Amino acid sequence: MKTTRAIQTVETFELLGNTPSELESLIEDLTASQLKTRRSPDEFSVVENLCHLRDIEIEGYQVRIKRILTEDHPALADVDGGRLAVERDYNSQPAAEALAEFRRARLENLKALQGIGESQLRREGMLQGVGAVTLEKLLLLMHEHDEDHLSDLRILRRWLDSNEND
After folding, report:
1. Per the structure, how many domains does the chain have?
2. Rg (Cα) of the chain, in Å, rounded?
């Protein structure tokens, strides 16, 4: 019989695995202009959200997962997503490519986590700005991050659709 922790972890894996498809369905049939449109200067456009998710997945979560699994109590750096958006000019990047790279990185991360046990889920690192995090907590943080951006994109999509004829 599976423990509550194991069931929650399986559910979290499934939710994390669904994110790329959810993103794809949210952005399908948007024009190039819509992909780059911001509701306000301090909010990400669709493509900026995709690039942010891609870079955090690769430079944040992928690194953190590997280090937690292979090192004892690693110090895990924060990733300044706002700074990366400016430095890398996210709004000039192709949305489809960003989504494909996010999907690939997410699948790699889930593959690396496949079959891990409870003892590995309890392994810890020190995440800058957060403190001690277990691998299990990191997975929950990934899911929360996904949900925040999916929510932002749902709002942005509704706004884009309502302003389509303006």
Report:
1. 1
2. 17
pLDDT in tens, 91-115: 999 999 999 999 999 999 999 998 8
Q: Is 39 exposed, middle or buried (0-12, 13-18, 19+ CB in 10 A)?
A: middle
Distance CA 160, CA 34 (A): 7
Tokens of 59: 């430079």
The span from the CA of 135 to the CA of 114, in Å, is: 13
The whole-model pTM stands at 0.92
Which pLDDT tens digit goes with each residue over 26-37? Answer: 999 999 999 999
Give the DSSP H/E element, type plus range, for residue 124. Answer: strand 124-127
CATH number of the domain encompassing residue 80 = 1.20.120.450
Sole residue written with tokens 């929950």:
140
User: The domain containing residue 84 runs over which residues?
Assistant: 4-162
Dihedral of alpha carbons 129, 130, 132, 137, sign: negative
